[in-house]
Amino acid sequence: MMKPVFILLAVTCMMQSAFTQFEPNYDESKVPQFEVPDLLTTFNGEKITKAEQWEDKRRPELLRFFEEEVYGRVPGNLDAFSFKLLEQDDSAVNGKARRKQVAITLEKNKRSLNFNLLLYLPKGSPSAPVFLGYNFHGNHTVTHDPKVLITDAWNENNEALEISNNKATEASRGKRTNRWAIEKMIDAGFGLATIYYGEVDPDKNDFTDGLHALFYKEGQERPETNEWGSIAAWAFGLRCAMDYLENDGDISKVVIFGHSRLGKAALWAGATDNRFAGVISNDSGCGGAALSKRQFGETVGRINHSFPHWFADAFEQYNGKEEQLPADQHQLLALIAPRPLYVASAVEDQWADPKGEFLAAYYASTIYGLYGKAGITTDELPAVDRPIQNTLAYHIRSGGHDVMDYDWEQYISWAKKLFN
Ligand code: GTR
């Protein structure tokens, strides 16, 4: 029998070889030559020239591709959806906003899942547009507000946020206020709706919990090859939040926002549900806004290796074979057209490939053009901190992988022009 130390060595070597195989490239001269898959030619070679043809032929087949081979298909519908107002208060955010906390319950196959929506709405207008976005560690982390409920769902440990034993406590309250410019949103007439993503699907390679488990047939333990990974589950959660929000008379429009892995989820939610009036992708990178075929920074093989639960298993066929992808992420962005879309990068976030995010937005602009909407008209990356804000918007800000006040200031001013 092999000794445990040899087994450990063998496993470590296997893991290292997978990582060296998918070593990130940060050298622009080593980006492979590739053809950008055409938005206006169907998989069987038909040319598209009008928005109606895009909607009837090309858009559905691209949507199907991302569903079957990237994020994964949702295996059915819920049996029941319900919600309950847990509490509300009129004096939140220095007296400028109303707070509501709503529990949403999803039921399927006699199993159920609950998540809590935290809402801040500006006072003084009968209904307001809101930004809807997941947070990484619990609703109580986005604000110091002592009334915000602490999640009891599984939470990734984080020393800086004082989260240990995979449980959030009072100690992490307000620890992520830097990523959520709530008062700026309220002052500009926008509300915020946020959810802890771990309540919808815990972010670990374990398919026994979260949303997936609700949909299993007798004896099933993980999704089928073309079925959903966690990103598609988080996107589904956003659509369920929308089921509530569209019936809340205090809300006029919903713009979804997401950072990083949650930016990937926001893009997929926006592509699959046109009730979202707009989409904001903050540093979403590989499997989000960045072109996979550039193989710059994080690659398909690397992301599937590090996060095997994020995508459909079918996506693994492209590990190290990006040239074989029949579609790329600019086509995901185009699925959101003609609705407003903002793609943002950070100059030090090379892992997410800012240039690949920009180019995807540039190529997607073709479809915005079909609808007479303005997108990005040059393939030259704009200067740092010089946003281009059309219906399709882009900025690259100084600094690293994060959400900063600068980002929110841009999103708010852009959204004000489009949604207020
Ligand atoms: C990284 C991952 C990225 C991005 C990021 C995040 O480790 O490689 O794709 O999603 O996590 O979500 O912060």
Automatic annotation (TrEMBL):
Q: Which residues form a coiled coil?
A: none
Q: Name one GO molecular function term.
A: carboxylic ester hydrolase activity
Q: Which residues form the 4-O-methyl-glucuronoyl methylesterase-like domain?
A: 225-372
Q: Name one Pfam family in it.
A: GCE_fung
Keyword field:
Hydrolase, Serine esterase, Signal
Region forming the signal peptide: 1-20
Recorded hits in InterPro entries, A to Z, give: AB_hydrolase_fold, GCE-like_dom
The answer to whether UniProt assigns keyword Transmembrane to this entry is no
Q: Does the keyword Flavoprotein apply?
A: no
Q: What is this protein called?
A: Alpha/beta hydrolase
Query: Origin organism of this chain?
Result: Pelagihabitans pacificus
Q: What is the lineage of its organism?
A: Bacteria, Pseudomonadati, Bacteroidota, Flavobacteriia, Flavobacteriales
